[in-house]
Amino acid sequence: MKIIGIIPARYASTRFPGKPLVDINGKSMIQRVYEQAKKAGSLTDVVVATDDSRIEKHVLTFGGSAVMTKESHQSGTDRCFEVIEKFHPDADVVINIQGDEPFIRPEQIDLAASCFDTDSVRIATLVKKINTYEELFNVNTPKVVLNKYGDAVYFSRQTLPFIRQKDQTEWLSQYTFYKHIGIYAYTVDVLAEITKLKQSSLELAEGLEQLRWIENGYTIKTKITDFESIAVDTPDDLKKLTIFL
Fold first, then answer.
1. pLDDT of residue 153
2. Which domain range does residue 14 map to?
3. Mean of pLDDT over the chain
4. Cα torsion through 28, 31, 26, 141, rounded to 10
5. Among 102, 98, 12, 101, which residue's Cα sits nearest to residue 55?
């Protein structure tokens, strides 16, 4: 099976312009993501998909692989599909690796890839158990409700499910809550399908792209990771990375 890891990387960002090129202890964020992805044994190839020549040039400078894609893409999913159409039409599976998680573990990428050992899986992602109340009630931490087969039932910024007749300080002892780890994997055929879908009402309400797929009847398989993953959305988030350095 040919599995391509694609790292979408935009220069423009309202909260953190130039984020992929920010220095983290001697290496740029995009270089750290790329090098971590290259360690994943499941990937046939790794490529950075960008719309900015500065990022492309930088990736090529450290010996990475990069391709230029359209500026008009609304999501990393759309950018991934352009790369597959133009450069890897013979791929079987695409793993969309977030360009703002500089310390993603290769094991997480391999875990997402392992979902496709079953022929029925078409979309997959990772989840992690929530252990703190800070995360549980943080609207910037998307939560995932799973069914007994490990499929995602719903994603929300709200805390789901609601634990009836229990004080919120008891919720973690009453139920196993999961947060979403934002790595996506799709078969190439389903990637072509979901990029044609219009934005859905649930997606617009929550601001979560994966709800578009669920609302259109797609099943998202999940696997549980024990590794922490920290996304850098703002300059202040860089302080959180000290646990990895």
1. 98
2. 3-244
3. 95
4. 60
5. 12
Distance CA 172, CA 174 (A): 5
Cα of first residue to Cα of last residue in the chain, in angstroms, is 34
Closest of 119, 110, 52, 61 to residue 79, by C-alpha: 52
What is the identity of the amino acid at 151? D
Residue ranges with strand state E in 10-165: 23-24, 27-28, 45-50, 66-68, 93-96, 123-129, 143-146, 152-156
Alpha helices, DSSP H only, in 88-179? 106-114, 133-136, 171-174
Q: Is the pTM of this model over 0.85?
A: yes
Distance (Å, whole) CA 209 – CA 146: 17
Spatial separation of the C-alpha atoms in residues 46 and 135, rounded to whole Å: 31
Domain count, the chain: 1
CATH code of the domain covering residue 158: 3.90.550.10
236, 190 contact by CB (below 8 A): no
Residue 13 has pLDDT above 90, yes or no: no
Residue-wise pLDDT tens digits, 47-100: 999 999 999 999 999 999 999 999 888 899 999 999 999 999 999 999 999 999
**CB of 180 closer than 8 Å to CB of 127:** yes
Length of the chain, in residues: 245
- Residue 19 has, within 13 A of its CA and on its CB side, a CA count of 24
Q: Kindly report the CA angle at 204 between 235 and 240, in degrees rounded to 5?
A: 20
pLDDT in tens, 211-234: 999 999 999 999 999 998 888 888
